[in-house]
Amino acid sequence: MNFNVLSLTNVLTENTINILIFLSLQPSCDCTDTPSVQFNTPNHTFVPKGSSNEITCLVDSRAPPNITWFYMQDGGQITKTCNAVTQCSVLVSGLQKGETRTYVCTVETVGRKLSISLLAEGTGQI
Fold it and tell me: Where is the Ig-like domain (predicted)?
């Protein structure tokens, strides 16, 4: 990171000095792209009763994204957030046979926000 330094010398205490500084901040990346988002598994995933499956939201983006998972489990909404990363995982577990649960992955970058969802369905025992 580069810094510019402003030095004032020979300033007398009886002198009044007004200094006006203008800052122009430029992003360190081209943040205008729309990120590509996908799962590491099919959008409809089957999880045998008594087992678990890790699902990962994968993001391809120039700007470092923030990824948040949302899903309902045991009557409450669960969230998991991963900041400034390109992938974020959650563990699908505890599904009974015939039970379904929707997992939503939301990706936020500078000026962009998009979501994709995955349906996990419990099947019979392993």
Answer: 35-115
pLDDT at 105 > cutoff 50: yes
Q: How many residues does the chain have?
A: 126
Q: How far apart are CA 24 and CA 76, in angstroms?
A: 45
CATH superfamily of domain region 36-125: Immunoglobulins (2.60.40.10)
Q: For residues 44 and 110, which has the higher predicted lDDT (pLDDT)? A: 44
89 contact partners, CB below 8 Å, separation of at least 6: 54, 55, 56, 57
pLDDT tens digit string along 69-89?
999 887 889 999 999 999 999
In whole angstroms, how far apart are CA 94 and each of 20, 33, 38, 46, 64?
61, 38, 24, 12, 32
Residues 6 or more apart whose CB falls under 8 angstroms from that of 40 comprise: 55, 56, 58
pTM of the model: 0.71
Q: β-strands 52-60, 66-73: how paired?
A: unpaired
